Amino acid sequence: MTVMRNILAGALAFGLFASSGAIAAPAAPASAPAPGTPIQPSETKTFGDWMVRCYPVASPSPCDMYELLANKQNNQRVMSLSIAYLPSGDKHVIQVAVPLGVLIPKGLVIESDTFTSPLLHYRRCDRGGCYVEMVFDNGAVNALATATGPGKVKVVAEGGKVFEIPFSLKGYVDAHGAMVDLARKKTSGKPAEAPAPAAPAAAPTAPAPTP
After folding, report:
1. Where residue 83 sits, what CATH number does that domain have?
2. CB atoms within 10 A of CB 206
């Protein structure tokens, strides 16, 4: 709980700021596993407090929309959100990163004035924090787009104290539209898969000898 308390206490004391580029090495997109060395985006566009990032890797969801919440004083990440779109299945995938010190079984909840998610369970933790990584319902994505104020992520720290981490939805709608368009263009531009090889033709039958 100490790690969580220290990070969030600092954030409350000095203020949170939403920044797509505050950390030089952003997390990998939600659709891809995090490699040892973070993959840098090849294309970025900023919409309010959200950044659309596209990556130079083969992926069913090559782009995501990303927001980073960091401590103004030391740039330490308090939370980040990444939403990616999979055109082939018309689905979204979300990654939420929060500090270590959370109570793992309690998961987290995303809220706005138009939406409350079910309990979202952590998939993994590493030295950088704990992560929710999962398919995110299209209805939830659309509900966040209709919010009239900021959203918040509710986490439970070890010891049971509940923290609410606010995040900005400024630019969310435009970022989502751009991310979906780019993802569709990049996946539709992939070469078509080679057809399965045909079954080999039967060997010709030798003519019967003439008597």
Report:
1. 2.60.40.1880
2. 6
Structure tokens at 22: 């505050």
Based on its alpha-carbon atoms, the radius of gyration of the chain, rounded to whole angstroms, reads 23
CA-nearest of 137, 130, 177 to 153 is: 130
Query: Is residue 41 within 8 Å of 201, Cβ to Cβ?
Result: no
Instruction: Please classify residue 191 by burial: count the beta carbons closer than 10 Å to its beta carbon, then call 0-12 exposed, 13-18 middle and 19+ buried.
Output: exposed
Entry pTM: 0.74
For residue 160, the enclosing domain spans 2-25+41-188
33-38 CB contacts, 8 Å cutoff, 24+ apart: 34/126
Containing 67, the helix (H) or strand (E) segment is strand 63-71
Q: What is the pLDDT of residues 103-147, one digit of tens each?
A: 999 999 999 999 999 999 999 999 989 999 999 999 999 999 999
- Is residue 168's pLDDT more than 70? yes
**Is there a domain that residue 209 lies in?**
no
Question: Between the ranges 17-26, 31-40, 100-109, where is the mean pLDDT highest?
Answer: 100-109
Residue 200: DSSP 8-state: P
Q: Is the dihedral of CA 28, 46, 164, 143 positive or negative?
A: negative
Q: Does residue 34 lie within any of the structural domains? A: no
